[in-house]
Specification:
Layout lengths: L19 E7 L3 H11 L5 E2 L3 E2 L6 E2 L1 E6 L4 E7 L1 E6 L14 E6 L9 E5 L2 H12 L4 E7 L14
Antiparallel strand pairs: 1-9, 1-10, 2-5, 3-4, 5-6, 6-9, 7-8
Length: about 160
């Protein structure tokens, strides 16, 4: 290496991508919501691998839609998982053998929300919110302010 070689350092600033969330209250399954949105909007949600929590047998369904032309990523994911465990010899002589059921939420501060839609594009969230609120199968859909999310790490799926 030359002694008089110049060293140039480039400034690198990572862009802070703001994620927008839409909360959805419904009794439908994720694939039904994805199908409806694909049919009635310009969306193209596709099923992806489930979101898992620390290999505890807890899975949240995930559907993604990417638009590379607009650099837009949108994800539909469930917030609830019903974890069932078989009881062993706890209710001997009981009339029914019922499993223990425990409902786990991805965002505990939003236990009543069934699904979330996350996007880096606010206009997409607004369009999906308008479409979903016109659908009778959706009880309610509304934008969640980003400061209400306590653990933003749950929004990273990679």
């Amino acid at each position: 290496m030359k002694l008089n070689a110049k060293r140039h350092l480039l400034a690198f600033e990572e862009e802070d991508v703001e994620e927008h969330l839409l909360a959805v209250h419904t009794a439908l399954e994720g694939f039904q919501i994805a199908y409806y949105l694909n049919k009635h909007t310009a969306a193209s949600f596709k099923r992806q691998d489930d979101i898992t929590l620390n290999n505890k047998g807890i899975f949240f369904s995930l559907f993604e839609w990417e638009n590379p032309l607009l650099d837009e990523n949108t994800a539909l994911f469930s917030n609830k998982f019903l974890h069932e465990k078989v009881q062993e010899n706890t209710n001997i002589g009981a009339l029914f053998d019922l499993p223990l059921r425990n409902e786990v939420s991805l965002f505990p501060e939003f236990k009543q929300v069934d699904f979330f839609i996350k996007s880096n594009h606010l206009e997409t969230i607004q369009l999906l919110s308008k479409q979903m609120n016109s659908w009778k199968a959706i009880t309610m859909a509304y934008v969640v302010p980003s400061e209400k999310i306590k653990n933003r790490l749950h929004l990273i799926f990679d």
